[in-house]
Amino acid sequence: MITGRFFAAGADRRIAITIFILLAVAFIVPLLNLAVSPTSAFYVPSYVVALTGKYLCYALLALALDLVWGYCGILSLGHGAFFALGGYAMGMYLMRQIGSRGVYGNPLLPDFMVFLNYRELPWFWYGFDHFWFAAIMVLAVPGLLAFIFGWFAFRSRVTGVYLSIITQAMTYALLLAFFRNDMGFGGNNGLTDFKDILGFNVQADATRSALFAASAVTLALAVFVTWAIVGSKYGKLLMAVRDAESRTRFLGWRAENVKLFAFTVSAVMAGIAGALYVPQVGIINPGEFEPSNSIEVVVWAAVGGRGTIVGPIIGALVVNAGKSWFTGVLPEFWLFALGGLFVAVTLFLPKGIVGMWDSWRGNAKALRAASIAEETGIDPDVPAPPKIVRSAARTPGDWSASSPEPQPAE
Amino acid sequence: MSKRNTILYLDGVSVSFDGFRAINNLSLVLDKGEMRAIIGPNGAGKTTMMDIVTGKTRPDAGEVYFDGEIDLTKHDEAEIAMMGIGRKFQKPTVFESHTIEENLMLALKGPRSIFPALFHRRSAAEVRQIDDILGITRLGDKRDELAANLSHGQKQWLEIGMLLAQDPKLLLVDEPVAGMTDAETEETARLLKDIARDHSVIVVEHDMHFVRELGVKVTCLHEGSVLSEGSLDFVSADERVVEVYLGR
Ligand SMILES: Nc1ncnc2c1ncn2[C@@H]1O[C@H](COP(=O)(O)OP(=O)(O)OP(=O)(O)O)[C@@H](O)[C@H]1O
Ligand SMILES: [Mg+2]
After folding, report:
1. Which among A164, A263, B88, B138 could bridge A150 via Cys, Cβ 3.0 to 4.6 Å?
2. Which structural domain range is residue A393 located in?
3. ipTM confidence score
4. Residue-range definition of the domain harbouring residue B46
5. Same domain, A289 and A404
6. What average pLDDT does this structure show over B114-119?
7. Confidence (pLDDT) at A80
């Protein structure tokens, strides 16, 4: 069933093409970096590999957000926290790989611990000398946080802007916590000066290319998983909860569990993105918890087109390429440009780049979807029930006097 | 009053919103297999009564029992739905971005947990059930249409179809013929009478023609309690009912 749909035409073909491109890029870019002479026109410089590898991690983060925002209407303003936690888990592994090569040469304690007069390794650093353990933590820590957070938030039916605000508060609280030196995560300097990963030098071109390829392949895999989730009956349910949550409850579905599953999966994806990001940029610090980071992710998804899978990836790549260029030219205006972009997209491209593309292509399905969005957006009560008219003449009496109030969505 | 052999039993139920008593010492009993029409002016508390039965609103006082023994005030919406109470909203509520078939698929009776839904494959039996419902609700040619493209009346029918897919013991149907043509209204009356053959049903409606068509016992609510109960002729001849409707 899944494979059949995978090779089908239309929107599903777009997914197949995206996956194909990502896998091709995972292979070709490292090749052009490593096997081609630097003088050749086809040579891809190492800094480009590192930069685009970073963008791919952002794209994965945007895709993770899209699963909850685009398909379930949960506007999380705290996804940067899951990303950062995944990053810290990877960073802790990388710190412990430094071993006695640190400035202080302590075989067990990372430099910042020696500097802060730690006597012994805090218990939560145990196990991080093993890659497999760190890898599990990359999945488990963001996943568990999202599960616990979602458990309480969805069960108590916090929705809409209130939910957005508490996700923002969550990442802010973590920001403050990780800034503290006594938390044992390196305070405001974070974790850095990494030496190797799985025995390979993180600075080496070959390692960087491998990390780039890993990012591209992981993103391809995430696209596939998201597509499979969204296309399943559960995915239909996810969208049903987005559009008419109380309807799903009265059909017997537990809307809170529907949301909780998507939220947890999404957080795990964000954590993986963070884990791939850290060795490529060489540092993780509390700045990654900055609330504005999470908001930027929302902008990427909105620019690309939420609820489209491919859109947020395109949005993340385009906006970040723009950011790299912009911060080179007019660094102090970047935040204004980002804000302006968000406003412009909301006003002129409500369905993002991908949605716009679909409309241009005259894609009938997309057009229909757009017109629905318009209808429901403007006036859900268009067909005013003409019940009064017909009952007017009948017994008992005339109750057409008071016009029926449109019920709020139940 | 005995709860035995009742599908729904409300006794002394009250609920207030910010001091305003929307439901006031309401008692209402529905026998197993019975269909009941509920009428009443705007704001009489008809929808609120359904909110209480389906677990959306908790009563401040009173007993609410389903099937003679289940205390509904101790359960939430999803649990109550799974016990067998289905509900059609006053404002038709369907999943607009899904097709008619997908709407019915999500409503079909079956397990309601996440993992089976994740790996669900449509079975032949399910397709047959959906075919049946599409036939009953005259939506057969709209199977792959988005629900958003349906007319108001068709959405009402789709929602009734979703109720059928759920196969509940008790159906609460809030204003099913709002926005329908006369022909559609008659069709709906026929459909509900059909459903009532093997289900218990409560229908809230303002349309007297439609209520007459149903030909069942009528309860008139006013200011959150029962004003009059009996045949339609009896209720519409009741002076208090006439007074309420003709305005004070
Ligand atoms: N959640 C709520 N909060 C505050 N007031 C409410 C709430 N729900 C209902 N009410 C009030 O309770 C009263 C009864 O409302 P209800 O919707 O049950 O009336 P109804 O009989 O269904 O009327 P209609 O024929 O207009 O649908 C109304 O005055 C309404 O404003
Ligand atoms: Mg009502």
Report:
1. A263
2. 381-410
3. 0.94
4. 6-94+169-246
5. no
6. 94
7. 98
